[in-house]
Design a protein that fits this description.
With 137 residues, the protein is an alpha+beta fold. The protein has one domain: Phage tail protein-like (STM4215-like). 25% of the residues lie in helices and 41% in strands. Strands 1, 2, 3, 4, 7, 8 and 9 form a seven-stranded mixed beta sheet that branches. The protein is elongated and about 55 Å long. The two termini are 19 Å apart.
Length: 137
């Protein structure tokens, strides 16, 4: 189930961001060769709870989304890296909120290459196996 959801979000995010700055959405930054870049990494899935009859089991699903960007000219217009990253982070938040996730954090992070701007977002939701639904924590 977890892999199925992960693939759904990866492909959904690719469609959602396809018109933005020529962005690449990947599982692992090693797959990418250009900026901007959105990397979606699954975090540990945690068993949350069940009722006494075990008829409703719940798991917590979490993802970390790293967004990288550099100054770029796209379709004839110059964009700054921090502008690109901030815009993409707002779109990522919108997407995951619509999917039933809560944004836990959305902060700037330092990067080894100071020309590359980076933002880290963490999202989480509870998945109910009984109803096959996600809801915000």
């Amino acid at each position: 189930m977890f892999d199925k959801l992960y693939n759904k979000y990866l492909n959904g995010m690719r469609r959602h961001l396809s018109y933005k700055y020529g962005v690449q959405v990947v599982r692992d930054s090693d797959e990418a060769n250009t900026f901007p870049l959105v990397e979606i990494k699954p975090l540990t899935t945690a068993y949350v709870s069940s009722n006494l009859s075990y008829s409703e089991q719940k798991d917590r699903f979490s993802y970390q989304i790293d967004i990288y960007g550099k100054d770029k000219t796209y379709r004839g217009k110059k964009y700054y890296g921090d502008e690109i990253v901030l815009d993409l982070s707002l779109e990522v938040e919108k997407y995951f909120n619509a999917q039933g996730y809560r944004v836990v954090t959305n902060t700037w992070a330092t990067n080894i290459d100071t020309r590359v701007k980076r933002r880290v977002i963490r999202v989480e939701a509870i998945y109910s196996h009984a109803t096959n639904t996600l809801y915000k924590t």
